[in-house]
Amino acid sequence: MSSVAIENLDIRYGNVHVVKSLDLQIRDGEFLVLLGPSGCGKSTLLNAIGGLTDVSGGSIHFNDKDVTWIDPKDRGIGMVFQSYALYPTMSVERNMSFGLKIAGIPRAEIDKKVKWAAELLQITQLLDRKPSALSGGQRQRVAIGRALVRDADIFLFDEPLSNLDAKLRAELRLEIKKLHKALGSTMIYVTHDQIEALTLADRIAVMKDGIIQQLDTPLNVYNKPANEFVGTFLGSPAMNKIAGAFAAENDGLVFKSGSFSLDVSAYPFAGKVVDGQKATLGLRPEHIHLAEQDKAAWNGTISLVEPMGSDILAWSDFDGINISHRLHQEQHCETGQPVSVTVDVIKASFFEEKTGARL
């Protein structure tokens, strides 16, 4: 196993600054997910770790070894790409063993490694088939197996499930999670899919414009986003955003937006806000609950209902502000119906108006 230390890394393509003075420590045996929208620099960073992209500045270390300018073949890595990149005329066994043969590994050892990887990935029965006779999920397993036989200390995954349908993605997420548990190897995984990030990662590095916005556990990234971008990028549907300002009232503190007034005296601001300070309130749909009208924070009207199977997503209008909130499957609701809700204030997020940083 290997740890990865990235220090002050810069990557430029001409005048385009893709990765900006980035520092990142990846622990021995950790499953780290690089998450972000297209163009944020996550795949470029992964390629730099793998040696496929030259850096403009900074360094990359595996354990205590500087690998910044070492060839990919000498870094001890295994890579799995979005495209399967299998040789169409070769069998599964030959696709998995080809790199080892080129490296001069003895035949007996190659057979042992291929057999082990095939059993681990449950593709033993496919070894004699060619890629054209495989499903998408099976092809991706073969691509993963080809990386496994290299005895790599670090595995790099670049959106490996993007080309699969939803059912196969769910199945292979589970297989990759089991694989990490079985191997204990360091794994770095690039995705724009928040479900993959939340279910697979030990820690998530959320990126935007070549900069890591937050590096933390999935639970903390979701529940305590470092800034407004992180809060709204994670979550389906997205976090509700409500612009307003704080006001001191009756020896307490409230957050006001138009006719809305929400008591936030119990929120752990620790003196970070003052009377009249503007901010954005971020609310997850699951932190808004139905209530009796006289006990509600807000009263409004349901404008759209989306049955989700296990629950219901309702979009409601509260005096011109449209907010999504989740309901239990048994809770009857329909368009045009009056609705009253309370807010779980402690689980809310507040962001500075100008910087978007979490208060």
UniProtKB/TrEMBL annotation:
Residues 4-234 form the ABC transporter domain. The keyword Magnesium does not apply. Keywords: ATP-binding, Nucleotide-binding, Sugar transport, Transport. GO terms for molecular function: ATP binding. It comes from the Bacteria. Coiled coil: none annotated. CDD domains: ABC_MalK_N (cd03301). It holds the Pfam family OB_MalK. NCBIfam families: PRK11650.1. Belongs to the ABC transporter superfamily. PANTHER family: MALTODEXTRIN IMPORT ATP-BINDING PROTEIN MSMX, OSMOPROTECTIVE COMPOUNDS UPTAKE ATP-BINDING PROTEIN GGTA. This is Multiple sugar transport system ATP-binding protein. It comes from Martelella mangrovi.
